[in-house]
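Progress note, sequence design subtask.
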């Protein structure tokens, strides 16, 4: 769903209703990722321990993506003026499909081999 929304979200989109709908869907997806991250941190622990959340490189990627989403929300809430650098953080949404890779062992093996 996130990849489809990334395709639909373009700078030339002028219809306000479509922009609001896409932003609403992005927020729902972001909330799902944040909830997943928080649940994993609660279950696994954050850093201290043998198999904690930040000991896995794929979880670090997830955490960075979630952190960027939260940072974008905070910046949008704190600034009443439209600041262009906030849109730069929105570009990090393109990293979200990488979260799907960790669920597929075959693709994960190929990516790890490439890295």
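Output:
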């Amino acid at each position: 769903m996130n990849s489809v929304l990334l395709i639909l979200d373009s700078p030339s989109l002028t219809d306000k209703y479509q922009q609001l709908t896409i932003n609403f869907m992005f927020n729902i997806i972001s909330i799902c990722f944040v909830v997943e991250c928080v649940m994993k941190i609660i279950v696994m622990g954050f850093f201290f321990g043998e198999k904690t959340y930040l000991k896995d490189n794929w979880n670090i990627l997830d955490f960075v993506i979630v952190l960027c989403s939260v940072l974008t929300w905070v910046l949008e809430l704190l600034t009443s003026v439209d600041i262009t650098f906030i849109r730069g953080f929105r570009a990090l949404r393109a990293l979200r499909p990488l979260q799907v890779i960790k669920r597929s062992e075959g693709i994960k093996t190929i990516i790890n081999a490439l890295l």
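The chain has one domain: 2-114. Work on this subtask will continue into the next period as scheduled.
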